[in-house]
């Protein structure tokens, strides 16, 4: 880790919660100069050994695997915040880092990501904003509704931030576009101000709940009140362009079990309309309709006398005489 000099792409899977995915579309230059590190706990390592071969260099594909022992927390999500927010402590000689959550797969070259979100904009920290919510109060209610953490702890954290000056998001906060990040991707330059920001952000995760979306804006605004710096927040659709999100392992296994338990689908029933029987004198040529021949009713004496039919008579002189 100390030998990594310029750029690192890092991720982590704790509690065997996600499925390890290999980066794609990585250039040969990035393979030579970018470090790819995957942090695992012992539980995840044991599960991977049953399905994946870890070679003598401790690599799985592009990922250099680091097995972490003596974890500081009993909560796997909170343990994952250590490499996520303190990468500058783990890689002291790195200049740039791209963090992606374990549920994501990188599908763009790391240098393309850095150029697009840091170098082109001349910023030192970039994170995507939430695709739906912009307000921390709304995010807290969504976390409680989704059972992400116990409600009392979330309420306590929000009430504390409210006393510290947290307000609802509004257009008055522009050019800040959101108070809620989609924290699964962090792109940053390792300089003192970004190192300070992520350290303070980690302090809030350690102090309150592990839901880092709730504490992001409070830490950001505290720093902005003292120095001219802010975190750049790009659209979530831009994030989806360079990482592909998968289901967590538990949800994926549930979906697969559900599909296996379902009976096979029957082919759709095709109802065949009965053919309409045409009368004998119907026209066989398309486009020519013919009316059905009416059956004659009971003949009357008047109709018989008025009908214009030819009748054969007796033979006269060897010839038939036809009477009209």
UniProtKB/TrEMBL annotation:
<dbReference type="InterPro" id="IPR048354">
    <property type="entry name" value="TOD1_MUCI70_glycTrfase_dom"/>
</dbReference>
<feature type="compositionally biased region" description="Basic residues">
    <location>
        <begin position="295"/>
        <end position="314"/>
    </location>
</feature>
<feature type="region of interest" description="Disordered">
    <location>
        <begin position="258"/>
        <end position="324"/>
    </location>
</feature>
<protein>
    <recommendedName>
        <fullName>TOD1/MUCI70 glycosyltransferase-like domain-containing protein</fullName>
    </recommendedName>
</protein>
<feature type="domain" description="TOD1/MUCI70 glycosyltransferase-like">
    <location>
        <begin position="1"/>
        <end position="248"/>
    </location>
</feature>
<dbReference type="Pfam" id="PF04765">
    <property type="entry name" value="TOD1_MUCI70"/>
</dbReference>
<dbReference type="InterPro" id="IPR006852">
    <property type="entry name" value="TOD1_MUCI70"/>
</dbReference>
């Amino acid at each position: 880790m100390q030998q990594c000099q310029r750029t690192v792409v890092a991720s982590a899977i704790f509690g065997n919660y996600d499925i390890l995915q290999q980066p794609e579309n990585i250039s040969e230059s990035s393979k030579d100069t970018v470090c790819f590190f995957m942090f695992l706990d012992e539980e995840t390592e044991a599960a991977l050994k049953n399905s994946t071969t870890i070679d003598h260099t401790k690599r799985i594909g592009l990922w250099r695997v680091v097995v972490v022992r003596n974890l500081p927390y009993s909560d796997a999500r909170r343990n994952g915040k250590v490499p996520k927010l303190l990468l500058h402590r783990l890689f002291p000689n790195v200049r740039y880092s791209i963090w992606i959550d374990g549920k994501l797969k990188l599908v763009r070259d790391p240098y393309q990501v850095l150029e697009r979100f840091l170098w082109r904009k001349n910023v030192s920290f970039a994170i995507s904003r939430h695709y739906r919510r912009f307000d921390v109060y709304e995010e807290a209610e969504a976390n409680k509704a989704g059972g992400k953490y116990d409600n009392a702890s979330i309420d306590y954290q929000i009430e504390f931030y409210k006393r510290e000056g947290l307000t609802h998001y509004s257009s008055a906060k522009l050019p800040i576009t959101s108070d809620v990040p989609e924290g699964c991707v962090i792109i940053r330059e390792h300089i003192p101000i970004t190192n300070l920001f992520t350290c303070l952000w980690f302090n809030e995760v350690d102090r309150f709940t592990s839901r880092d979306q709730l504490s992001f804006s409070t830490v950001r605004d505290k720093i902005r009140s003292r120095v001219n710096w802010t975190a750049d927040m790009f659209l979530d659709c831009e994030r989806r362009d360079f990482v592909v999100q998968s289901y967590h392992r538990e949800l994926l296994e549930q979906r697969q079990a559900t599909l296996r338990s379902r009976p096979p689908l029957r082919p759709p029933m095709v109802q065949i309309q009965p053919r309409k029987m045409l009368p004998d004198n119907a026209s066989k040529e398309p486009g020519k309709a013919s009316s059905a021949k009416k059956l004659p009713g009971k003949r009357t004496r008047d109709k018989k006398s008025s009908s214009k039919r030819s009748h054969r008579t007796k033979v006269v002189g060897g010839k038939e005489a036809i009477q009209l």
